[in-house]
Specification:
Layout: H1 2-24, H2 29-45, H3 50-56, H4 58-61, H5 64-82, H6 86-112
Length: 117
């Protein structure tokens, strides 16, 4: 039960920060998206995001900073395993499942439902 609570709190706090950025600054949702992905990648590169993942679980891996974290972790793993060529394969390998799921489900929803407007 504690894991669910921590995931809810961590994920909720990430979303609150994003909402506050959109409400209180001139940043658009696209700016916040890019900011969160890059921030997750930078924090992961310095080893600061992994403790948040261990604390919050899915609450830290599913929001946008988690995508940046996955890109960096995958790249670091593949660089250790394959050397220079891991730079090109790591991010793709680590994020392929999530990207493919978004494409498939997005397509399915566009076929099932009619857009308004």
């Amino acid at each position: 039960m504690t894991a669910y609570l921590m995931a809810f709190i961590i994920g909720g706090l990430i979303c609150v920060v994003g909402q506050l950025l959109m409400d209180l600054t001139p940043l658009t949702p696209a700016h916040v998206l890019v900011l969160f992905v890059v921030l997750g990648a930078i924090l992961s590169g310095f080893g600061l995001y992994q403790p948040l993942v261990e604390l919050g679980g899915a609450g830290a891996t599913i929001p946008l900073p988690g995508f940046g974290h996955a890109l960096v972790v995958g790249t670091i793993e593949d660089v250790d395993k394959y050397g220079f060529w891991g730079i090109f394969s790591g991010a793709l390998r680590a994020s392929a499942t999530g990207v493919m799921a978004a494409v498939v489900f997005g397509f399915a929803m566009s076929v099932i439902f009619n857009p308004k407007g």
